[in-house]
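Before relying on records like the one below, remember that each one covers exactly one chain. Contacts with other chains, cofactors or solvent are not represented anywhere in the record.
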Amino acid sequence: MPPLGRRHRALVAASLFAIGCPAARAPKPANEPPKPPPGVEVHAASGRPRLVVVRRDGDPSAAIALELRGDQPGDELRLALVSALVGARLEAAAFGGVEVVPGTQLARVRALVPQLGAATAGQLDAALSTPITKGEPAMAAVRKALDAFAARPVIDPALSRATRCLERPTRPASFKPPDDPAAFAEAARAAVVRADTMIVGAVGSGSTDTFVQAWRSQPAYAGSVTVKGAEPLPPSLGTPSAWKSTAVTLSMGHAGGVVVVEGGPRAALPGALPLLTDEGGPLASRLRAADDFRLRGLSGAARAEGACVVVEVEPSPAVRSSLKDPERLALRTAVALEVARQEVELALQSLEAIDDAQASKTAIASGGDPREAADRAAFWAWPTSAPAPLSSWATLAVAASSIVKGPSIDEGAALAQLAPKFALAMQKAKLAWTKSEIELKSRTEAGQGELWVALGSPCSVAHEGVSDAGTASIAARALVAAHASHGSQSGVVVEPWSATTGVGLVAHAAARPGESAASVGHRVGDTVGRSFLASFPAAEHLAAARADGLGSLATPVVADELVRSAVRFSSPLHPSWLDPQGTLEAVAKVGLEQVDLRLASLRSGPLRLAVLANADEAQADAVARAAERWVPRRPGEARACPLVDAGPAPKGAIHALTVKTGTGVALALPVDEASREAAAEIAAILDGKDGRLAAELGAGLATRWEARLVRGVARHALVIVALAPDSNVDAVVGRVRAVLEKLRSGGIDAADLARADRDRAAARTARRLDPRARVVDLFAGDLLAPAPQMELSPLRAAAAKLLDEDKTQLVVARLAK
């Protein structure tokens, strides 16, 4: 499929340019003449085409531009012939630098003139109004234009809307050259040269009054035809457009799709195009997240009836081989086209405040060539219609090789069979955005200084084994590095977060002066949603993330290293199921492709959003709506975490470590989900200044000790660590085993239970003083859960089961002998 526009280049009728974006405005009535900007004069006289004059100094020559418009059947050919005729006549009248640009509904003739005077006005009028004679020299240009029209490609019905939007030169399949070119061209001139179907733009310095008066005093044109415009309906940019039609066509090159969006104020288009063509912008990011599609071309046109944008998408080379099946291609392309439609409408909506006066001022001022400035002045003087409601057209382009398997295959029949399937795929794609894909957990904490959110995957590190342990954690760090490198102006702080209960990003921000609660919610939700769901780290981001991850793993803290070793022996096939940071060996080898694949798996699975709103519930909803924009959709595919099976716990063993400094022991005992609360209670009985370990290991035997529950993916671990001089290590091992045996044999009393409950409650309170901890706990489902209450008898039974030395992984760190 030949591209409809150069890659990332905005091909806009009348050469529009980017402008700023102020606040909202009401739509204009239909066919209201636009208000000219300062320095631009619009002159109208009964029966005469509108004249737009731009006064400016410095140009070496004055210039005129004529625009002819037609939207009736056959006008495309008429415009081509009449514009060629007028251009030839102006050249014969010694106008310089004549340019003729025929189009589908708009033809333009531009020229340089020594000065704007009465003679120029008369010559231009004569070029338009003088009937054609067979022998006049300008007929050579008319015949050449007729031959060029006959050589145009035949219009593809599936792409007709895009062709119409962008003024692409095509011809109908039924075209036949006229038998009498001169008579046909004269009939075309009589049909096209009407006061209401032409506008003249002029650029010059000094006084232009003589030129204006001479133009207005020329004879009136008979039978003016009103330019057809849209019905005076207000734009509805806040709601999705309707898909008007879908079509399928053959491509001689790569497969892909085209979407055409029409409607909305035309003045919004110049500013919208740079937003849409930005290689790091929302459209490119969302397309890549949608099965690795990319933008192949994007073009637009501003017309009297509103804006028009054409977007062409295609799958990247990496995924083309997986989309050879036409039905699979149709569904994936439909999702990409729906993404493109949404982003076009959002871009237009964000700039709907701009009016024609602002747009025309910017467009005219940026026209360095006076012919270009005159052309732009003429274009923006066309009467505007109220922007029509947004409408969209979609076309699927399939490679001939994917549907034509042999010489006997009927291409038309194959396309006809695929067309209803593509139409159904477009319906599925649009419906995919009517339901939420993110599970929302929210809590209102009115009066807090900041809004906090956590967005991520509850699957956490369930995907990981030995070779890729820690990849999800590195991916989260890389996303934060990418966010920081873009110099975001959002004012939102984004942090990596990886735990066995979830992996993703934490974000927080305070309201700016005068900012509403809903607005700050949208700002935070949009930032964290884009960062986690539609951001793609580069090599430099991965390098920073990997260095950070390796630094956290290579900690000099002996206790941490002992615990990490103990839990690794407890989960040898899935180290990150107990330690989501992974292993030094695996993290050191993480590559960019691994990160991309891990992000894709996390994004295609279940998603969860935790929100600590500092205003009201509506603020949490605003966060969720903003984040939903970035979720990649896959119609027909369920979101599910991979199945995890911890398997039987490894047999207990003693593992000796030789260290240069820092000696001690660490024990890890396996804990299933049903025993998690009991294990946490036992850890609290052992831990603390009044705990059982303090009584056994104090008085100088050990220098530090701790007991805690390490929460895992499929299995948890009760971990005990104690540091001691090398000469005391054996005694520490014996004391720890003795205290565990005592608890296993029923040696837990009511005082132990009461103290453990108090210590656990104090620890929860201390932890949740930090809003980051609260939002992560909300994500995991712990924040709103009632405090567990353990009974003595069940706790003793659980201890007898859990504290099994045959399943204990004992790590002993000793000095080298």
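The CA atoms of residues 467 and 511 lie 43 Å apart.
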